[in-house]
Design a protein that fits this description.
Layout lengths: L11 H6 L2 H11 L4 E7 L2 E6 H15 L8 E5 L4 H12 L3 E5 L5 H11 L3 E4 L4 H8 L6 E4 L5 H6 L6 H4 L12 E6 L9 E5 H8 L1 H8 L11 E4 L6 H13 L2 E4 L7 H10 L4 E4 L1 H14 L3 H4 L3 E4 L6 H9 L4 E7 L3 E5 L13 E2 L10 E5 L5 E5 L18 E9 L7 E6 L4 E2 L5 E2 L1 H8 L5 E7 L7 E6 L1 H4 L4 H18 L11 E3 L16 H7 L1 H13 L14 H16 L20 H14 L7 H4 L3 H9 L6 H26 L7 H4 L3 E6 L4 H12 L3 E8 L6 H11 L12 E5 L11 H10 L2 E4 L10 H19 L7 E7 L9 E2 L15 H19 L4 E6 L2 E2 L12 H12 L1 E3 L4 E2 L2 E2 H14 L11 E4 L5 E2 H10 L5 E3 L1 H9 L10 H9 L6 E2 L2 H6 L11 H13 L8
Parallel strand pairs: 1-10, 3-4, 3-5, 4-7, 5-6, 9-10, 9-11, 11-12, 12-13, 23-24, 25-26, 25-28, 26-27, 28-29, 29-31, 30-39, 31-36, 32-35, 33-38
Antiparallel strand pairs: 1-2, 7-8, 13-14, 14-15, 16-17, 17-18, 18-19, 20-21, 22-23, 34-37
Length: 1047
C-alpha cells in the first residue's frame, strides 16, 4: 500500500507506482468499495466501484489479449462513455501503447495517424465502424475490432478470468516509467493531427495535479474520497484524461454523461442527482451556463461545487466575474498535451483571482520547470525545461532540449507571480500596418451572444479585421433575419468597445455564414482560424475587396449639382455616422477629422461612403483632405489635382507651417541668458518615447551614467500601467529591468496638449525648475498622414514642451530626435548644420516634413533666442549588437525573412549606413551629457546618428549567405512578383511598400559624421552589419518564432 508520505512534489509517489495500470491496480484495492464511476443510463445514474472497474477491465483485457498479441500500438475510436473508460483501461492493462483517436477526425487524418504510429489493431464502437473500416483498409495489415455496447450487469457477473496472470503482465520496474503508455494527438488545426507520446511518468504526474496542489497548499479543500467530479471533456483529450483519473489518488468518483457536449439542463440534472462537488468543462459550457442560471434561477447545484475548472480556451472576464459573484468558484487551468496540466489559478475560494495562472511544477530545489522569456511584443513566451517530468516524449523544439509552447502571457500586475494567457504566437494577427490584434478575447466576447454559435476573427496581413459568424440555429429559429443581423452587430459592437481601435471590426467586415455552413472547431470549442479562412477564402477575399476598393459610383446620384452647403451637410452626416458621434461635434469645418477620432481604418469606411456619391475619390482622399472644408473643395472642384501638383502643395503647406511657428516663437520666447558653467546643476533628464526601441536604450544608458541624478519618463498609457509598460519595454529587448527599480526614475503620463502638461501647477513648476535636459524621442510614424495631421499630433504638443523647457536664465537643454528624411533631398552629401528654410530639402511625406518644421524653429530658437536646442538626425537603426533584438515588423527584418522563404533576395544599389540601436543610443546620450553645460551655439547644434562606416547591399547579402541562408539574387521586379503570389509570407503585408520603394530611382545621400564622432567617439566604433552581427539578428528572430532556417 502507498505511504501517506509519498508525494508528487518529490516524485516519490511516481517512483512507487511506476506505471499507470499499476497505479489503477493498487488504488482499486485501496478503495475497493468506493464508487469510482457514476454513469448515465436513460434518465438515471448507475455506479461502479473501484474493484468492479478493475474486475471488468481485467476480464476484457484477457478476452482481447490473443487478438492484439504482438501489437506495438493499439488505436481506439469512440465517444466518451462508460464503455470508453472500461475499454481504455482494459487495453492499457495489456501494456501496449494506446492511441486515443478523436471521432472528429477526417478519414484522411485517421489514416495518417495510423501510419505515423504504425498501429496494426484498430478498436472502434459501432457508431464509427464505417470510417474506421474505410481508414484501416487503406493500410496493409491493420485489423479492425468492433466493440459492441457492454452489458455491464453481465460483465459484473462474470468470474475473474483465472488465466489473468498469463495474459496480463503485472510486474513493473523503474524502466516502465519512461515507456510510452498513451498517445493523444493534437487537434490538427493547421494540418494532420500530430501523435504525442505520453510516458507512464507523465501520466502519473498529470493524474496527481490536484494532489500536488494540495501538497503545496495544505489549507485547501481539493479532491478527497467523498468528492464527485462531473467532467464534460472527452477522455481522448489530455484535460479530460487528467481530470478523470485525478480522482483515483483520493478514491473519489467521476460522473459520465450520455453524450458530449451536454445541454445546460443535462448538466444541472447530473449535478443534482450525483451531488457533485467538482466540475470540469470547456469555457464555452460556462459561458452558456450564465444565461441558463439567469433564466432558471436554480443556483444550488452549481453553488455546491467546491470548484469548477475550465481549460483549452479563454473564458470571458465578465462570465467568470459573474459566476464568482454568484458563489460559483470558477477557476482557470492551463496545459498542453506536450507538457501536461501545468498552471493553476489560485484555488482558494476566498480569492477573487480566478483567471490568472501560476506554474505548479518545480524541481527539488524549488525552481520552476516552466520558464517565461521576453518577446519583442512585450509578452512572455512560455517554454518548458528539458528535465520536466511532465514533458511528453520527443516533443523538444529547442536546442537545449526543452519545449517552446508558443503560448504568450502577460504577468498580472495585481497578482505578481501569476500570468494571464494572451494567445498563441500564431494567434496574434499582425496587421498590414504592423499593429497587432489578439483575436481570442474578441471571439470570446462575440460568442457571448446566444445567437452566435462560433466566430472567427481574421485580419493577418490585412488593413483591418473581419469576422465570420456561424449562427446558433437553436436560437435563430425564434428571430427574423433583420433581428439576427441586429443581434450579431450588437455582439460585434460589444467587442469593439473592449479592443484597441486598430482592431475594430466594422459592420462591412462582418459576414454571417449561410445557416447550413459551419466554422471548424477543436473538441474544446476553439475555432480553427486558419482552416476557417481557407474554407471560406473566396468569401473572405470578396469581403476585403469590396471594402478596400470601395463601392461603384452610384450614377443615379445627383451630387454633381450639389451646393457647397449640401456637400458639407452630407459630409457631416457621413462622418457622424461612421464615428458614432452627434453631428454638432463637427461644426468646426476647418478642424481635421483625425483630431475628432477618425483613424486609418474608419477613414476607409468614410471614403467608401463618399465614393458612393462622388466620382473618382482616391483611396488616400481623406489623408490629403482632412477637414470638411478641404473635402468639400476637393469634391466640388472641376479639375483633379495631379500627383506632382499635390506634392508641391504639401511642400508649400510645410513651408507656411514652419513660417507660422517662427512667428509664434518670436512672440512666445524672449532672448535667454546662458550661464551654465557658473550654475553647474546636476543633470536631471525628461525623456519621451522611452518605451520605443531607441528610447529604451537611451533610458538604459542614462540610468547607467552616475552623473545623471534623475530621469523623468513621459509615457502614453493609463496611469496604473505606466511602469509596467516600461518594464515590458526593457524585458522585451533583453535590457536589465532591475535598473528601473530605483528612485532615480519616475514615470509620468504624457499629456503634452493639456495645460501644465496634465500636471498640477505646483508639480509643473517644480519640474520646470528641476529638469536640466529634455530629450524628445516620441513621434508618430505613419507615412500616410499629411503635415496637417502631424501638426496636431506631434508638432503642436512639442511646441508646448518647449514652453515648459524655457527659462529666461539657463533654459533646459532641448534635444530633438529628427530624421535623415528631413534633409534627404538637399544634395549628394549632407553637412552637420541647420537646414535651409526650404521645405524641398525633405522627402515628400508628412513625417519628413514634420521633422523639417521642428528643425527650422529649433534652429531659430538656438540662433535668435539663445535657447540651446540640439538636433540628432537619426538614420536606419538596426537591432542591438549584443542580443540582436530587431523589431520583426520593420521593413528589413521582413525582407530578410521573406527572402529566406522564397530563396530570393532583390538586387539593390542601396548604400548601407545602418547603426545598431545600442550604438545610436550611446552616441545620443554622449551628446546630451557632454553638452549639458554648453551655451547656445548654432554651429554645434546638429548631429548625424548614422554609421560612419558604409557598406554596399552586396555586403549584406554576403553576410546572409555566411549565416547559412540560401537564395538567388534577382531583379527587384521579380522579387516583388514572387512575394505577391504568397500571402502567407510575413512580408506580404508590406507588398505595396516594397513595390513603391523598388520602383523609385532615388539615391540616398551621404550624411557627414565628423563633428558627431568628435563629440561622441562611440559612433566611430559602430560595427557594420557583418556575418557576426547578422547571425545575432537571425538567432533572435528564430527564438521568437519569426525566422526558421531553410534546409
Amino acid at each position: 500500500m502507498p505511504s501517506a508520505t509519498q508525494s508528487i512534489s518529490d516524485q516519490s509517489a511516481i517512483d512507487y507506482y511506476k506505471a499507470f495500470v499499476n497505479f489503477i491496480k493498487i488504488q482499486s484495492k485501496l478503495y475497493a468499495d468506493n464508487v469510482f464511476v457514476r454513469y448515465q443510463v436513460n434518465k438515471g445514474f448507475k455506479t461502479l466501484t473501484y474493484s468492479q472497474v478493475d474486475h471488468i477491465t481485467t476480464n476484457l483485457a484477457c478476452e482481447w489479449a490473443k487478438q492484439v498479441e504482438g501489437s506495438g500500438v493499439i488505436s481506439y475510436i469512440s465517444d466518451r462513455s462508460i464503455d470508453y473508460l472500461l475499454t481504455m483501461i482494459a487495453l492499457m492493462k495489456l501494456r501496449f501503447t494506446l492511441l486515443a483517436v478523436s471521432p472528429r477526425n477526417s478519414e484522411a487524418a485517421i489514416v495518417n495517424l495510423l501510419e505515423k504510429t504504425n498501429s496494426k489493431v484498430f478498436f472502434t464502437s459501432p457508431k464509427y465502424e464505417a470510417i474506421a473500416k474505410s481508414a484501416s483498409v487503406k493500410i496493409e495489415g491493420v485489423s479492425l475490432i468492433v466493440v459492441n455496447p457492454f452489458d455491464i450487469e453481465a460483465l459484473l457477473n462474470q468470474p475473474l478470468n483465472d488465466r489473468q496472470n498469463e495474459f496480463i503482465d503485472t510486474s513493473f520496474t523503474e524502466k516502465d516509467l519512461d515507456k510510452p503508455a498513451l498517445i493523444i494527438h493534437s487537434s490538427g488545426s493547421t494540418n494532420y493531427p500530430k501523435p504525442i507520446y505520453l510516458t507512464n511518468r507523465y501520466i502519473l504526474n498529470i493524474c496527481g495535479v490536484f494532489k500536488l496542489c494540495k501538497e503545496q497548499n495544505p489549507h485547501l479543500d481539493l479532491v478527497k474520497q467523498s468528492d464527485v467530479f462531473l467532467i464534460c471533456v472527452p477522455l481522448f483529450h489530455g484535460f479530460g484524461f487528467a481530470c478523470t483519473f485525478s480522482v483515483v489518488y483520493a478514491g473519489a468518483s467521476v460522473v459520465f454523461l450520455e453524450k458530449l457536449p451536454p445541454s445546460q439542463n443535462e448538466i444541472t440534472y447530473a449535478l443534482k442527482q450525483n451531488n457533485c462537488t467538482l466540475m470540469a468543462a470547456p469555457p464555452l459550457i460556462f459561458e452558456q451556463m450564465v444565461p441558463h442560471l439567469k433564466e432558471t434561477n436554480e443556483f444550488s447545484a452549481a453553488q455546491n461545487l467546491k470548484f469548477a475548472i475550465f481549460a483549452g480556451a479563454s473564458l470571458k472576464r465578465e462570465t467568470g466575474d459573474w459566476l464568482q459573484k454568484h458563489n460559483i468558484n470558477i477557476r482557470n487551468v492551463y496545459g498542453t498535451t506536450e507538457m501536461s496540466v501545468g498552471m493553476f489559478a489560485n484555488f482558494d475560494p476566498r480569492c477573487k483571482n480566478w483567471y490568472s495562472l501560476r506554474p505548479i511544477w518545480n524541481d527539488r530545489s524549488g525552481q520552476s520547470y516552466f520558464i517565461f522569456e521576453d518577446t519583442d511584443e512585450g509578452y512572455k513566451h512560455l517554454y518548458i525545461r528539458s528535465d520536466s517530468p511532465t514533458l511528453a516524449l520527443n516533443v523538444s523544439n529547442r536546442e537545449d532540449g526543452g519545449f517552446n509552447s508558443n503560448d504568450l502571457f502577460l504577468e498580472d500586475s495585481e497578482h505578481p507571480g501569476y500570468f494571464n494567457y494572451v494567445g498563441r504566437r500564431d494567434d496574434i494577427l499582425v496587421m498590414e500596418n504592423g499593429e497587432k490584434t489578439n483575436p481570442v478575447p474578441m471571439e470570446n466576447t462575440i460568442r457571448q451572444s446566444t445567437i452566435v454559435k462560433q466566430v472567427a476573427v481574421l485580419g493577418h496581413a490585412r488593413q483591418c479585421t473581419a469576422a465570420l459568424i456561424e449562427i446558433d440555429m437553436d436560437y435563430a429559429m425564434s428571430y427574423g433575419p433583420e433581428e439576427i443581423i441586429s443581434l450579431v452587430y450588437e455582439a460585434v459592437e460589444d467587442t469593439n468597445k473592449e479592443c484597441p481601435s486598430h482592431s475594430t471590426i466594422l459592420p462591412q467586415m462582418v459576414k454571417i455564414l449561410p445557416f447550413d455552413k459551419t466554422l471548424p472547431s477543436t473538441d474544446k470549442g476553439t475555432v480553427i482560424r486558419k482552416k476557417a479562412e481557407a474554407m471560406y477564402a473566396g468569401l473572405v477575399e470578396k469581403m476585403y475587396k469590396d471594402f478596400l476598393e470601395g463601392p461603384v459610383y452610384n450614377s443615379s446620384s445627383d451630387s454633381s449639382s450639389w451646393s457647397a452647403k449640401q456637400t458639407e451637410s452630407f459630409l457631416v452626416k457621413s462622418i457622424a455616422d461612421v464615428l458614432h458621434m452627434p453631428e454638432f461635434a463637427f461644426n468646426d469645418h476647418e478642424r481635421s477629422v483625425f483630431d475628432l477620432g477618425l483613424n486609418s481604418l474608419t477613414a476607409i469606411q468614410l471614403r467608401n461612403v463618399i465614393a458612393k456619391q462622388f466620382k473618382n475619390v482616391p483611396q488616400n482622399f481623406l489623408f490629403q483632405n482632412s477637414t470638411i472644408s478641404s473635402m468639400r473643395q476637393a469634391l466640388l472642384s472641376d479639375s483633379q489635382i495631379d500627383a506632382a501638383e499635390l506634392v508641391e502643395m504639401r511642400y508649400q503647406q510645410a513651408q507656411e507651417l514652419a513660417k507660422s511657428y517662427l512667428e509664434r516663437a518670436n512672440k512666445d520666447f524672449s532672448v535667454t541668458k546662458n550661464d551654465y558653467e557658473a550654475e553647474k546643476k546636476e543633470k536631471v533628464v525628461l525623456l519621451t518615447g522611452a518605451t520605443g526601441s531607441l528610447g529604451s536604450f537611451m533610458l538604459r544608458d542614462l540610468l547607467k551614467d552616475a552623473t545623471v541624478k534623475k530621469v523623468y519618463c513621459l509615457i502614453r498609457d493609463k496611469e496604473t500601467e505606466l511602469h509596467t509598460r516600461l518594464v515590458n519595454a526593457f524585458t522585451s529587448r533583453h535590457l536589465d529591468s532591475s535598473l528601473l527599480e530605483t528612485e532615480r526614475i519616475e514615470v509620468l503620463p504624457m499629456r503634452l496638449t493639456e495645460q501644465y502638461l496634465g500636471l498640477t501647477k505646483e508639480r509643473y513648476e517644480q519640474l520646470k525648475e528641476e529638469i536640466t535636459i529634455v530629450q524628445h524621442c516620441a513621434w508618430l510614424l505613419d507615412f500616410n498622414m499629411t503635415i496637417d495631421h502631424y501638426d496636431k499630433e506631434c508638432i503642436a504638443p512639442f511646441y508646448n514642451l518647449l514652453k515648459f523647457a524655457y527659462r529666461e536664465v539657463n533654459p533646459m537643454h532641448v534635444h530633438f530626435i529628427s530624421s535623415v528624411s528631413a534633409s534627404a533631398a538637399l544634395g549628394s552629401e549632407i553637412e552637420e548644420k541647420p537646414l535651409p528654410f526650404d521645405s524641398h530639402a525633405t522627402m515628400p511625406m508628412g513625417y519628413a516634413q514634420s521633422k523639417f518644421v521642428c528643425e527650422i524653429f529649433l534652429g531659430y530658437l538656438m540662433k535668435e533666442k539663445n535657447f540651446p536646442c540640439y538636433i540628432e538626425r537619426v538614420g536606419q537603426v538596426s537591432g542591438d549588437s549584443e542580443s540582436g533584438v530587431w523589431n520583426t515588423s520593420e521593413q528589413y527584418p521582413l525582407l530578410f525573412v521573406a527572402g529566406s522563404l522564397m530563396r530570393k533576395m532583390p538586387k539593390l544599389s542601396t548604400v548601407i549606413d545602418w547603426i545598431p540601436v545600442d550604438y545610436a543610443s550611446s552616441a545620443i546620450v554622449d551628446i546630451m551629457l557632454r553638452t549639458a553645460h554648453f551655451s547656445a551655439n548654432i554651429e554645434s547644434s546638429v548631429y548625424h546618428i548614422v554609421n560612419p562606416h558604409h557598406e554596399n547591399w552586396t555586403d549584406i547579402l554576403n553576410a546572409m549567405k555566411s549565416c547559412g541562408m540560401k537564395f538567388d539574387v534577382v531583379e527587384p521586379v521579380e522579387w516583388v512578383d514572387t512575394l505577391s503570389k504568397d500571402d502567407t509570407n510575413p512580408a506580404f503585408r508590406l507588398m505595396s511598400f516594397y513595390e513603391d520603394s523598388f520602383k523609385k530611382d532615388f539615391k540616398m545621400p551621404i550624411w557627414q559624421t565628423k563633428k558627431t564622432c568628435k563629440l561622441a567617439p562611440i559612433l566611430a566604433k559602430s560595427p557594420v552589419v557583418d556575418s557576426k552581427l547578422f547571425s545575432k539578428y537571425l538567432n533572435h528572430w528564430q527564438s521568437v518564432g519569426f525566422y526558421k532556417p531553410s534546409n
